[in-house]
Each structure stands twice: as C-alpha cells, then as structure tokens.
Amino acid sequence: MKGWMGKAKAIFLLSFTALLLAGCGRENLTALVPKGYGAEQSMKLIILTTVVMGSVFIIVCIILAFVLFKFRRKKGQEDFIPKQVEGHKGLEVIWTVIPIILVIIMAVPTTLVSFDLADASDAKDHLNIKVTGNQYWWHFDYEGEDIQTSQDLYIPVGEKVYLNMISTDVIHSFWVPAISGKMDVNPENVNTMYIEAYEEGVYYGKCAEFCGPSHSLMDFKVIAVSKEEYDKWVADMQNYDPEKDKPESAIAQEGKELFEQNNCMACHAIGSSPNQVGPNLTNFGNRSKLAGIEEHTKEKVIEWIQDPESLKPGNLMTGKYPKLNDDEAEKIAEYLMQLKATDITPDSAGK
C-alpha cells in the first residue's frame, strides 16, 4: 500500500506542477489569447478539435465504465461466458463511420482556414514585406518603401500585412502566436502569409522549426502601432541619413570610427542599404532586446561584441572580426546605443 500511495502522490504532484506551469507565460506570446486574425482562426480550430476529441474521450470513458460494471465477474458465474459480438456488422460500421465523420468535421474547417490565410489575391493592395530567415535572426525588407530592419517588425494595426518569406540557409518557421499561425521559411521557394493585429502593442515571435544550436534563441518582435504612428515611423526611417547622424559624445564618435575601422560595415548596414550579411543596425538604440533574447543594455552589448558565441552559440558573427579589448568594445557599444532613427519604439507601442 505504501508503494502504491507513493506513486499516486508522485503522479498527483507532477500533474499539479504541469497544470500550474501551463498557466505561466505572457499574453503576447500565447496562441490562447488571440490578438490577430490568423491567431483568432487558429483558436477556433483549437476549440473545435478540443470539443470533438474531448467528447470522444468522455463517451469512451462512459462506455468503458458501463462495460466494466455490467460485465464484471459476479459470484457464482466464474465460468459464465457472455454473448460474443465478434464480427458484428453493425458495430463494425459504427466504429468505422463515426471516426470518418469526426475527421471530416475537423479537416474541412482546417483546410478552409489554411487556404484563407494563404490567399494572396489582394496582396498588391496592402503592405508587402520580404522576410528573410537566417541563423539566428530575422531580416525585414519593406517592399517599395526603401526600409530595411532586423529583429523588430513594425506594422500598422488593423491592416493586412503580407509577408513573403525565404531562408538564406536552413528551414526556419515564422510564428507570432498571439496574431498568426506558423509558416515554414524555406531556402528554395517563397512562402506567403498575411498577418493582422487587432490591437497596438508588442507581439513576441519565435522560430518554430529546429534550425541549429541557437534555434530556441531565434526570437523577434512584431510592433503594431496606429496608422498615424506607422506613417511617422516610415517617414523617419526613409529620411534617416547615417552620415548626418552625428554621435552625441566623443566616446560614441570614437566608437563610430572603430566600427568602420574594424570593417563592421561589411556585414551590418545602417540605413536603407540592402546589405544583410548581418542584422541591420539602423534603429539599434531603440530596440528592447539584444540579439532577440538578451536585455538591451550597454553592458550586454559589450559582452556580445567581445564574445557573441557565449550568448548565441553557432552565430555567424563569431570569429569574423579582430578581437577587441574592453575600451574598444565599450566605445563601439556607446556608438551603437545612440543609433535612433525615430521616437516610435517598442516601449511606446500601445501607450
């Protein structure tokens, strides 16, 4: 009895812990609190499949309980053999037809939603953004706008935004749980989907396809702002000239010179340059996360510059530039932290 009770307690504890942890998380990083059209449609499918499969589970449990009770071995009937129904045509038809009907109930809406979210027939009438997946970061090219960003995707709230996605290396998967479903990002072909956010705010995105040692660190953000703020952001980004953006301090000026001397511009663009070997740094100072996952502080930037491998294993920046001492790294970090093309930021979204 002691052994049985111990196992029961362990099962209860694990179940309770799993239930407790299931409630952890952020509102803007969950598919269960939809804030966009794609996520809303996905939630409807989740509810449909949960109701169907939950109903099947309950019915099976009821039938099982009935059978266990009705056909239990009774005293004095140890040798009694109940009527056998093996090969019963009626039962065979029932448990073949019912699953088919249930699959159809779930498959038809799923197929309709999939085609709906992949429909790009009106793409020319809306904002189009080329999304490029890299190990382990995301690049966004606003088609027809002459704007390039990395890691932070700004969109107008309440409007369709078409994403034309491709990868430069391996298969990735674009997923912003709160506002959209998933879409594979392949090296061979462009996959298109659209997203639409109902509310202003910052929505957290993940790569949902294992793509290497830092797959779990390939995070990004979608920042949904009002139409007026979005138009201002576009104007600010288009009018930004990195050559005219003078560093605010002597240390930052030295950092800019070191940035250029160490050939950082060969990989990182500042402004609307199409260079995308590494993330675009135009609005780096306004980001709220470093490399998608770290706190955006000067100290973390210095740590990244000196040893990016320790923060994001397998990244393509490691070993591609001369080793920098503490003083050089601090000056470059100072320069990067003052790169601010606009006052529309993730922290101001929805406020």
Automatic annotation (TrEMBL):
Q: What is its EC number?
A: 7.1.1.9
Top EC class for this record: translocase
Q: Which Pfam families match?
A: COX2, COX2_TM, Cytochrom_C
- Keywords from the named record: Copper, Electron transport, Heme, Iron, Membrane, Metal-binding, Respiratory chain, Translocase, Transmembrane, Transmembrane helix, Transport
Q: Which residues form the Cytochrome oxidase subunit II copper A binding domain?
A: 124-236
Q: Which InterPro entries match?
A: CcO_II, CcO_II-like_C, Copper_CuA, Cupredoxin, CuRO_CcO_Caa3_II, Cyt_c-like_dom, Cyt_c-like_dom_sf, Cyt_c_oxidase_su2
Q: Which residues form the Cytochrome c domain?
A: 250-340
UniProt keyword Nucleotide-binding present = no
Q: What does this protein do?
A: Subunits I and II form the functional core of the enzyme complex. Electrons originating in cytochrome c are transferred via heme a and Cu(A) to the binuclear center formed by heme a3 and Cu(B).
Q: What name has this protein been given in UniProt? A: Cytochrome c oxidase subunit 2
